[in-house]
Design a protein that fits this description.
Membrane topology: Multi-pass membrane protein
Distance between the termini: 72 Å
Number of helices: 4
Strand content: 15-25%
Transmembrane segments: 44-65
Number of domains: 2
Largest sheet: 5 strands, mixed, barrel
Low-confidence stretches: none
Structural class: alpha+beta
Protein name: NfeD family protein
Main location: membrane
Subcellular location: Membrane
Oligomer: single chain
Amino acid sequence: MSLTLLWVVIGVALCLMELLVPTAFLESALGVSALAVALLSGVVTQLNLQIGLWMIFSLLTFWLLHRFAPKRTPPTLLDATEARTLTAIGPGQTGRVIYEGNSWQARCEDEGVAIAADQLVFVVHRRGNTLIVLPQSILRA
């Protein structure tokens, strides 16, 4: 099997793998680079030089294609994580909790429940900059 055909097979296989299992353009960068080396294999006949070209082309292609990858958004709040109240949270009112080392505005999910200061609460979700919490006592009942 000639080296040109080998590079074409590797390039096509890597590009097809990117379609089946997306890897943020990594496999497609490797595949496109292999196809470029296949085009140059008539001029560059030594396998060591072809592998070196493939690595250089892969880095450049990945750098160019990486710009089109979707940007990762920062992680949102995890479900049912713990926080501790800094101030009392009256029924239907907001207070303050300490969550992941920061002070957050918080409101109880149940509008009729009051939560005392220095109580363990669970963060249910977030609404804007306000954490929606439930007291630990409600969850145990």
